[in-house]
Each structure stands twice: as structure tokens, then as C-alpha cells.
# Entry
Amino acid sequence: MANTRVILKRRKAVRNIHKITRTMNLIATSKFRRAHDRAVDSKPYTQKVTALVSKLADVAGGQIDHPLLRSREVRNDLVLVLTSNRGLCGGYNAQVLRAAIAHIEAQKKAGVNVRLEVVGKKGINYLKFLGYPMAGRFTHIEDKPSFDHVEEFVSRHMDLFLREQSIDAVHVVYMRFVSAGRQQPVVEKLLPLSGLDEVARPAAADGAAKREHPLEAYDFSPAPAELLAELLPITVKVRLLQFLNDSVVSEQIARMTAMKAATDNAGDMIRGLTRKYNRARQSQITSELSEIIGGAAALE
Amino acid sequence: MPIGSKTFQVELVTPHLAEQPMTCTFAALPAWDGEIGVLHGRSPLVCKLGAGELRVEVDGAVRRYYIQGGFAEVLDGVVTVLTGQVMAAEELSADQASADLAAALAAPAADEPARERRREQVEHARARLAVARRAGRGKGSDHG
# Structure
């Protein structure tokens, strides 16, 4: 039977871990709520921009020939991988990195040069360990992605894509937030935009059903095609902001789930150790008693 | 019924927040090529905005906002302003805006994207300065 003091020491250690994981679970829960609220707050902007694009696409769809919509043969692909700065979030980073590596290897097999940019210390460290060269490493986004962060990325990417033409496509690998119970690692094409239909798709059904005014009744300033050309870069920014928000929300959910499981496991361990300790204590008392009784009997 | 007594809604929407809609009798939007005044019953409109001052008349008082460009849509008695940044004029400081303008003008710009960024920053700082000065001069309730 194990020594009671050893069991007590172990139980104390597990209790401390239990406290830490429970606190981390609570922190992750509150961060998840805040991240979720931020994602919800940015929704009206996203929806209205998309609805406007849908409307303008109906009017000027045929006339527009924007460089952001022009696909060319992909020889150089920029892959942006969104991971977290901190760990203890279960399989979150592993899943995103697995999807990223699969995409990178597929591109390499197809003869495409990959320019890799990674957000988050976890992804940077892992890909460095595997020996993937990285053109950009970013650790400044943390839990609050903002439009400024997005502008920094998108303006650089658009510059490389449109002006220098040193990249032919931008793909983003991130964890999509489907619901609180389901997140999915995905590879999304950010540039070029696949087409007006895709950009306007979320608003198309809604707009068609609700549109009471014929589009001819609208005044446009400047012309619809020009407005659309101005709106397309914003669409790219809005999409990336949504990807970043999804990543943050998914990370906090993953941490919440991982810490909840760790807390539950620590609780189970504490209960098991308590039972073991009681049994050890009982048997120690029994053996002490029998020793006393044995000793007393020997003296008689 | 006098012009301007009928009301409509103005919604300010940024990537981070959608403000509560305001019920107003008049709005002046800083369009890319000048100002557009909106009264109740205006026909549907989609326009590009420049950085500048948005004025709305709520309960007879004029509220002034700085907006950083974007787009506006007028439809069915609702004016939706989509912009990167919105600030109430009273939150702006003319000194800060002057400092921002000086910093933007002094920023180095070696290539075309950097020059473009600097142009934008200068334009935004100038607009902020103008809105801050106008707000500091007086709290007029005129339409102009």
C-alpha cells in the first residue's frame, strides 16, 4: 500500500493544477464571449457591404473588369496561416497546421512556389521546426483583430498581387467558426476574388426577395461600375477581418473545451487519490492496531 | 407641413460597431465630389463618401461627426453610412489633428504605395482638423 504522505503530496499537486485549469477555463469563457461579441459587432458592416456589392453587381456586373477579379495561372501562391500565440488550446493549432501543410505540399507538387506568412507563435515555431521558410512572421494580433491589422495585411498582399505581380493568389488557412460546438480548419482563397457572384452570394437571396425599389430608381454617384471597383478592395478586407475574428473565437472555444476537460480530469484524479488515501490511511490504522494488539498479547 | 419636419433614420456602421440609428430631420453627407443634403422622402441613392463632416439634425440640434470616407445608401427613409471610422466632432482635438497633419506631411514616401498612404493620411488629418475647428467655432444649428 502506497505511503499516505506521498498520496497527499500528489493530491495537493493535482488540486493546484485543478485550480489553474479552472481559472483558465473561466478566462477562456469570458474571452470567448468578448471575441464573439466583437465578431457579432462587425457583422452589420460585413452584411451591408455585401448587400451593396450584390446590388451594384446587378446593375454593373457585365461592365466590370477589375484586376481583383482577374484570375491568372498560379505560379506563386501566398499562404497566410492563422494560428495562436498561446498554447493549451487542445488540437486547435495542430488542426490548422495540418491543413496548412497539406495545402503547401499540394501546391509544391503542382509546381507552385509558396510564399509562407504565419500569424501566431505556435505556427511559427512548428513550421520553423519542420524547416519551412517563412516570408513573414506576425505575433502582434493577439485576441483583438482590428481593421488596422487587416489593412496592413491586405494592402501588402494587394501590392504584391496587383503592382508587383509577384504572387498570383492568396490563400488563408484558419479555423472557421461554424457554431459553438463546431469549428473547421479551412483553406480559403482571398485573392483573386472568384467572381462577383461569390462576393455577393450571402446577400443575393436576401436582396432579391426584399428589393422593393427597382434598381433603375437609384441615383448612383459615381457610376455603379466605379462604385463597385471601390468596394471590391473593402470586400477583401472585410473577408480577412472575418477570418481573423473566426480564428480568435475558435481559439477561445478550443481553450475553453480543453481546460474544461482538464478540470474534469483533475477532479476525477482528486477523487481517486482521496479514495486511495483513505484506504491507505485505514489500512495503516488497522495495521497499527493489530501491532498494538499483537504487542499487548505478547506481554500477557 | 414645413420642409424638414418629417423624420428619417441615419445609421452609422463601422467595421467594429453599428451605432444606434438616429431619428433626424436633415442630414448632410460628405460625398466624394461635394456635399449631399438629405431630407425625408429622398429617392434611393448610393454614393461614395470622402473624409469629412457628417451633419445630422436631431430634435432641432445639429450633431457633427467626422467620417473617414466610405459609402452611403439612402433607401426607404434610412440613410446607412458605411465608414472605416466615425468620431463625434466634440471628441476631436484641433491640436491633435494639426499634429497628425504635420506628422503625415513629414512622413517619408519612397514608392508609390507609400505616397498613396501618405496622401490618404494627409487627407484624413485635414478633414479631422476642419471638423474640429468647425466644432470649436460654434454650435450653429444651420443647415450650411
